[in-house]
Amino acid sequence: MLPRATVFGLFVGWALTITTSRGLSTVSGGLGGDYPAFYAAGRIVLSGATDHLYDFATQRAFGAEFPNGGFLPFVYPPFVAALYAPLATFGYRTSFALFNLLSFFSLFASVRLLWPISPTIRRNSWLVLAGLFFFYPVLRGILGGQNTALSLLVVCGTWRLFYAERGVAAGLVLSVLSCKPQYLLPVVGAVFMARRFDAVLGVVCGMGVFYAAGAWISGWGWPIDWLGTARAFAVVDAQSNMANSVSLGQIPHLLGFPNGWIPMSLALSIWVAWVAWKGRRGDFVVVLGISQVAALLIAPHAMYYDLGIAAPAILLLADRGRPRAAAWLWLGSASQFFAQTLVLSPVILVLAILLLLLRRELHE
To answer: How far apart are CA 16 and CA 91, in angstroms?
Structure first.
């Protein structure tokens, strides 16, 4: 009964927050956290001004009346903005509430997708669901207007399709992460090194579709504008948001070597590729988990709430007979609460431990 009660309590608390908020504010600040960036991008698409999607003045104009001063940069591909366009047809508060409901549904669907794979879910489905809802990065991502739950749904769908030996379909689903290529590329590299070429084909086809969708929205040269905006934002964000980043690159940056992330990320990428190459076919799910966890550390820009995509890897430890380790890692993610005091995110250590534990699960 306790897991059911906690999930129900979360919904009650969320509903009270939405319904009792005054205008676009709550007792903890602006309603929706980072959601104004996505909402404004959806409005730009609806207006037809997609040629100026990455113009900060345009983004500011379309989000001027929303929380957080009306301006949070939108640095995702054009097709992501198009996905938010239907939500932008509603008022801001209604749109955010609908987006939250979509995120909650994504968590339910993620658990359901992993049902055939995970004995832990089959034994304790409500406990896993409650743990997922209260997984600190996931909960903060949802309430902060981020698409963490949707990314997790993509990851779980990929795992399920690989389990069903449907490699091309798994690759197609995995390609959805092209909206966050820093998390996609290390995983695709591991899939390639594991000789799952059917999945690589699916990823390539999916990325082609998303490129064409972006071209239809913002023109064929959209990757140049998008990458330029994303690179400029990442430089500024790395300086102002260091405590929330789980990228290994934050360590040399803190020590005064801003380019130190390059050799660190390269070394970790080579290690993941080697692990994938040496892994047996029966170990592929572990290799997949390793690559997804490593992607968070490798990426030059990775926020703690994206740790949600590592939830299946933590669950995998419980499935392999390490429930206490999984529980401690789940609890350790909440250490992000103290990140502002520590300057550097302690979740980096949580990811490193998870990576080492997953490596031990590979057959020698």
So the answer is: 18
Q: Residue 76 and residue 44: Cα distance in Å, rounded?
A: 13
The Cα 206–Cα 183 span in angstroms is: 15
Burial annotation 57-90 (CB, 10 A radius, 16+ → b, else e):
ebbebbbeebbbebbbbbbbbbbbbbbbbebbee
Better-predicted residue by pLDDT, 123 or 22: 123
Tokens of 191: 């899939």
Query: 48-79: per-residue pLDDT in tens?
Result: 888 888 888 888 888 767 765 556 788 899 99
C-alpha distances (whole Å) from 210 to each of 74, 147, 149, 172, 305 are: 18, 18, 20, 11, 24
Quick: pLDDT tens for 234-284: 766 766 677 888 988 777 777 777 676 788 889 999 999 999 998 776 789
The band of 178, judged by pLDDT with boundaries at 50, 70 and 90, is: very high
- Other CB atoms within 10 A of residue 362 CB: 15
User: To which H or E segment does residue 229 belong?
Assistant: helix 222-240
- Per the CB < 8 A criterion, the answer to whether 199 and 170 are in contact is yes
Q: 224: Cβ–Cβ under 8 A, 6 or more apart, which residues?
A: none
Please give the distance of CA 232 from its chain centroid, rounded to a whole number.
Answer: 20
Q: Which two tokens stand for residue 243?
A: 């405590």
| C-alpha distances in Å from residue 302, one per residue of 52, 108, 181, 295, 296 | 26, 25, 11, 9, 6
